[in-house]
Specification:
about 475 residues, alpha/beta, six-stranded parallel sheet, 19 helices, 14 strands, about 15% strand, binds uridine-5'-diphosphate-xylopyranose
Length: about 475
């Protein structure tokens, strides 16, 4: 079975870059990326590739190379489904905001809508690939919808979770640690699995393409994110202990990271992890464990989230406490709103929660981020519903340059580790700020001694 036509439903952070890479590496495959969001598709089709909706280093060039050759973006979902041999489902699976499992379970309504649409449109056999991160055993529900509502054609279901991290999507897709493909244990299932292996084998070494059963694949994705997030919460828990014992979390991380069993990655203390995946996937894991009556398993993983919420709150509290227990009417500059550097994505970013806490304390905030738009920042705050949209716009200003942000500020807080922040003329920043000039480094990116020498009163996460 050789795949010639791929459809991907969902042109988001996962679907967009992944399909661009497949198109770039498989010139014989026609790739149609479809989405119900018209403006998003229009942005993917913008003649200037710098305006595509997702900022990822290297992505615009790849889109320029492939778009309208074998990569197409469209809102015509039906046509793309009808033409495809293989359909990736890459729509979002947010945490449920209503009903049973509210605040924890993954909301699968978009997945179900996709399955129903595929079933009603398909008039030939299709391989359906779960690309979205899904609860273990979702494929069972997919199978039931497809088989009971379809036109009698055959569907094979694969699980192919995506492990790319934002900000490094292109290099992660180009050189993945592994590609994971879960398939059904039938002859047809094996063939479908092989068809997808063959797609990736165009650029990924065969030994890095792992095949498992569907359930292992679904659960491995949740597990990988839970383990990664757990490392961040573990180091963040110890960062608080460092602050009261004069240990230095950077040194502790280096010391333990050289143990080859522990390894050096994902040991950077921070103001708290964000992103669309970690919290959502852990909550989902906790919910699944609870559903099966495994309360201790659920409690164990929930602690990772509790610790992360604590870390964000503790950072904001530290600012208030340091500024003589009040920030009311004081200008505080926030540098960085994205959940990490090299992305314009702000989902679950620690900055949102730190800003919200400070706004509750009546601070006046100015925000500068190199890639995030003012509209996005206000959307993030409005979504919390803590105060009115007008209040948010009155108390928080988004500015175009870092110097505008820090001018006359009582404090500057670094919340994203953008490289450009490291290279600022911090003396100039100091001169513009009110004195004493407080600097809160939530990402450990500045040399504390250097900025102290300039005159700043510095707090670095994890340093006593
Ligand atoms: C999402 C999930 O967050 C993640 O768990 C999963 O692994 C992959 O999908 P991401 O690509 O970052 O990740 O989401 P998002 O950027 O929101 O993109 C999803 C896209 O699907 C949106 O553009 C949305 O308009 C589209 N969509 C959603 C559809 O086209 N049809 C639908 O029915 C629902
Ligand atoms: C994550 C997973 O890494 C990826 O495999 C999966 O497909 C999706 O979820 P992503 O959310 O894009 O990717 O970013 P990641 O680099 O994992 O960072 C997540 C958050 O953890 C960020 O807020 C980051 O700043 C924070 N982090 C990460 C730390 O605070 N310290 C670290 O050492 C590493």
């Amino acid at each position: 079975m050789k795949i010639k036509n791929i459809c991907c439903i969902g042109a988001g952070y996962v679907g967009g870059p992944t399909m661009t890479m497949i198109a770039a590496k498989c010139p014989d495959i026609k790739v149609n990326v479809v989405d119900i969001n018209k403006s998003r598709i229009a942005a993917w089709n913008d003649p200037n590739v710098e305006n595509i909706p997702i900022y990822e280093p290297g992505l615009s060039d790849l889109v320029a190379q492939t778009r309208d050759h074998n990569l197409f973006f469209s809102t015509d979902v039906d046509a793309a489904i009808a033409a495809a041999d293989m359909i990736f489902i890459s729509v979002n699976t947010p945490t449920k905001t209503y009903g049973v499992g509210k605040g924890m379970a993954a909301d699968l309504k978009y997945i179900e809508l996709c399955a129903r649409q595929i079933a009603s449109v398909a008039t030939s056999d299709k391989i359906i690939v779960e690309k979205s991160t899904l609860p273990v055993r979702t494929a069972e529900a997919l199978r039931s919808i497809l088989d009971n509502t379809g036109n009698g054609v055959h569907f094979d279901i694969l699980s192919n979770p995506e492990f790319l991290a934002e900000g490094t999507a292109v290099s992660d897709l180009l050189n993945p640690d592994r590609v994971l493909i879960g398939g059904e244990d039938t002859e047809r299932g094996k063939k479908a699995q092989q068809a997808l292996v063959d797609v990736y084998a165009n650029w990924v070494p065969k030994e890095q393409i792992l095949t498992t059963n569907v359930w292992s694949s679904e659960l491995s994705k949740l597990t990988a994110n839970a383990f990664l997030a757990q490392r961040v919460s573990s180091i963040n828990a110890l960062s608080e202990l460092c602050e009261v014992t004069e240990a230095d979390i950077g040194e502790v991380a280096r010391a333990i990271g050289t143990d080859s069993r522990i390894g050096p990655k994902f040991l950077k203390a921070s103001v708290g992890f964000g992103g669309s995946c970690f919290q959502k996937d852990i909550l989902n894991l906790v919910y699944i464990a609870q559903t099966y009556g495994l309360q201790e398993v659920a409690d164990y993983w929930e602690q990772v989230i509790i610790m992360n919420d604590h870390q964000k709150r503790r950072f904001a509290k530290k600012i208030v406490k340091t500024l003589f227990n009040t920030v009311s009417g004081k200008k505080i500059a926030i540098l960085g709103w994205a959940f990490k550097k090299d992305t314009n994505d702000t989902r679950e970013s620690a900055a949102i929660y730190v800003a919200d806490y400070l706004l509750n304390e009546q601070a006046e905030i100015t925000v500068y981020d190199p890639k995030v738009t003012a509209q996005q920042i206000y959307n993030d705050l409005d979504y919390l519903g803590t105060r009115s949209g007008e209040e948010n716009r009155r108390l928080l200003k988004v500015v175009e340059t870092p110097l505008q942000a820090v001018e006359d500020a009582h404090a500057t807080a670094i919340l994203t580790e953008w490289n450009e922040f490291i290279n600022y003329d911090w003396k100039e920043v100091y001169d513009l700020m009110l004195k004493p000039a407080f600097l809160f480094d939530g990402r450990m990116i500045l040399n504390q001694q250097d900025v102290e020498k300039i005159g700043f009163d510095v707090y670095t996460i994890g340093k006593g």
